Amino acid sequence: MKNPLLLLVFVLLLSPLRAQLSNDRQLAKALPTLMNWGQWGPDDQLGTLNYLTDSLVILAAQEIQTGHTISLARTTSITDQHVMQGTYEAYKETHGLRDFVGAVWHGFELTHLDALNHVFADSGRLYNGYDLVEGLSKLSIDKVAAHGIVGRAVLVDVARYLPEGVHPGMPIYPHHLDQVLEKQNTMLRSGDVLMVRTGLGRSNSRTLRAGLHPSCLLWIKDNQVSMLGSDGDSDAYPVEGFQKYSNAFHTVGIPYLGLPLLDNAELEALSEYCFSQRRYTFFITIAPWRINGASSSPINPIAIF
């Protein structure tokens, strides 16, 4: 929304609704408000990445001031299940090894990007109303990979600035995000990539993890966030009052908002550098693998200052 007055009215109207999102029933009633189907046309395949326009990418380039870079990907080690395709002797003449490494990208270990074909809406359809057969291809990760994700990113360092700290299973509410942004003296812009640090990293698990409360879905939409990332999977779990939408940023954020999610980012070095510079905005570049039909891809996001 270009008109500041209209944006203010929109936010004020949604504020009471935001406060009411305390259970599955209330979230189900809010789905029409959250839904972005048709927002960018009937053939849209990018969802909220549409907020990240070419002009905003040019503007984001101003974030590059020192050239300092930080990887936001976790280090992944080869385990005992690592399989060599052939032996070293078989490739002696070529002076090398040829490896095959298999991995499940979804879950709570690898840093990866979820595509918009990852989760269905309640109707069984995918984002923007695509059926499964059509959406499997049209919403796959290669549509994002075709252009990559580059733009301005903002770290919301909840673990550092929330007075009460963050504990396992803790839900982070919209007022927490506002509070941290104020302490960081950071303002969000339309199209920003948002990275939320819980500080728990690999301690976030399938059964207990800190993350965003479902009421933050409206906050994300209000602020026109283009992509959401975290050092967990963005969802708090378990959350009182929520069962059907217990992983709301996946079960609602992906199919209804069209919001790509970056899971399991490594944010510790980023947090330390941002704190040392008193600066929480940076240029980010993300290049998923170009695989048609895939619902995710391992990634190595790079923050550039």
From TrEMBL:
Top-level taxon of origin: Bacteria
MF terms in GO: arylformamidase activity
One family name in Pfam for this protein: Cyclase
Keywords on record: Signal
Keyword Thylakoid: no
Range of residues in the leader sequence: 1-21
Gene Ontology biological process terms in this record: L-tryptophan catabolic process to kynurenine
PANTHER family: CYCLASE (PTHR34861:SF10), PTHR34861
Protein name stated in the entry: Kynurenine formamidase
